[in-house]
């Protein structure tokens, strides 16, 4: 059930970021077979024309310090379920170049990882995390359209592009590959905002359902573990 809900969420995002909210809008071909049609007034844009990308900070082990003595460096472990988390933090005391100081609505992306499945996971930087930085295995895409683009990254569009350049020998999302990704996009910021608000609401509903299913599954696992323990320790006996 959890997997079905995750698939539904991704399909909903993909449908919305390629077709929009107005089901009566005139359509046109996107020029890309697997995207199909898009609203007539939308445009196909490469990411290199919508924003800029930068790789993160390289630091030495001796630069790692306590929380109150340095700057937070966001890494892959700081992104869980498409959101920022702060359960595994690293702080450094080295100089941080101005261009890699995080800003609100930056899109933080895992660009290199030992696990290919983790490449491309991403999250938007919020107001309280602005001013921090990010590690060398991450990159940041900066654009005024990032709230919409974030959902594109969570759709089948980005999954498709990842499959075109990740191989058994290439395990990295380069800035060049990132810039060459083409996406359908309405250039009207009000329309983008309406789509983002719609998806925020719908995805929150699905995420709540997923959390409920996961909680129920964990309860059953704990019950099973407890039941096994009681029988193998003799606290309960097999009858019949």
Keywords summarizing the entry:
240 residues, alpha+beta, 4-stranded antiparallel beta sheet, 4-stranded mixed beta sheet, 14 strands, 35% helix, globular
Description of the molecule:
The protein has 240 residues and is α+β, with helices and mostly antiparallel strands. The protein has 5 helices and 14 strands. It has a 4-stranded antiparallel beta sheet. Strand 1 (27-29) and strand 2 form a beta hairpin. The longest helix is centred in the C-terminal third of the chain and has 44 residues, at 189-232. The two termini are 35 Å apart.
**Helix percent band:** 25-40%
How would you classify the quaternary structure?
A: single chain
User: What's the main sheet like?
Assistant: 4 strands, antiparallel
Could you say which structural class the secondary elements and strand pairing correspond to? alpha+beta
Strand tally: 14
One letter per element, helices H and strands E, the order comes to HEEEEEEEEEEEEEHHHEH
First-to-last CA distance: 35 Å
Tell me the strand order in the biggest sheet: 4-13-10-11
Strand percentage lies at 15-25%
Low-confidence stretches: none
* Rounded mean pLDDT score: 91
Tally the helices: what do you get?
5
Shape call: globular
Rg computed from alpha carbons, rounded to a whole number of angstroms: 22 Å
